[in-house]
Amino acid sequence: MVPQPEMQNDVQPGAQPTNGSEPQQTPMDQMPQRPAAPESQPPMSEMPQQVPMGDEQPQAPMNGMPQAPMGAMPQQPMVMTPTRSGMAIAALVLGIVAIVMFWIPFIGVICGIAAIVTGVMSMRKINAGNLSGKNMAITGLVTGIVGLVISAIVLVGAFSMGKSILDEANQMDSSTSSDTTHEKARSDKGSTDQKLKDKEMKGSGSLKGGDVKIASAQRGPDDFEGHNTIIVTYEYTNTDKENHSFRDGLRDKVFQKGASLKRAYYLDDVQGYNDDSDHTELQPNGNLTVTVAYELNDETSPVDVEVSSGVDYMGKAKITKTFNLQ
């Protein structure tokens, strides 16, 4: 007799034990299935969006910014940096140059004007567009104005100083030229005066004190002392700037045989003779006929008449004329 294997007490999974009978095997389709490995979940962005139910309204994006899809990395917004205005930089540089170079007036003035124009234009562009550099433009404008004012003051001062130097130089030249001219005039005048001083004029001429012409000489009546007389007639013109008489400006002398004759005086009036005519005062350029009587030494000798200047005692110029009594 073949021995029977012992019954295993182990209960197979899924078998239901029975009383003294063989365990019944559970069919395969009735056996519990091991759960399969979960498949990879699709990205959240590919998952269908949940449709709101009923009266629920979709939530609006926060802060007005669109929300990134579920599972997507949030993107940072790009910040645009304003472009700095090149004209503002130029205005600042020109303004600084205008202040630094003020001692060269033309450069300071030109750079100052350029800085002001460039600063105003850059501020207009900055206010109109997305540009930066407003503070630089304002600084350039201010420095341009300051540089322009300082340079203009220096320029005006330089012109004034130059004009003053030129005026002084012109005055010195004029003074030198005037001194030379005056010296030459004095020299010429001195030469002329010397010639006049040494000149003897016959009958008429110009003296320092007046123009004189020895017009005539004729016999006159006896004077109050009974002397024979001669009356000499002069044509006199006052050439001085002041009033003068014949006696004030001139000296008259009459000689006979080399000796001078005395002045004669009459008790009665003599026709054609005025004893006060030589003392009559004349204005400048005034003229007068002057008559003077002289006592004769004899009745036959020629008479020499001389007239010289009464104010130039060193002068040798004279007017002479000789009259014969026969």
UniProtKB/TrEMBL annotation:
Region feature (Disordered): 1-76, 172-221
Gene3D superfamilies, alphabetized: 2.60.40.1240
Stretches with biased composition (Low complexity): 57-76
Domain of life: Bacteria
Annotated Basic and acidic residues bias: 180-202
Limits of the DUF5067 domain: 191-308
Alphabetical list of InterPro entries matching this protein: DUF4190 (IPR025241), DUF5067 (IPR031989), Immunoprotect_excell_Ig-like (IPR029050)
Keywords: Membrane, Signal, Transmembrane, Transmembrane helix
Transmembrane spans: 88-117, 137-159
Domain DUF4190: 87-153
Bias kind Polar residues: ranges: 1-28
Protein name: DUF5067 domain-containing protein
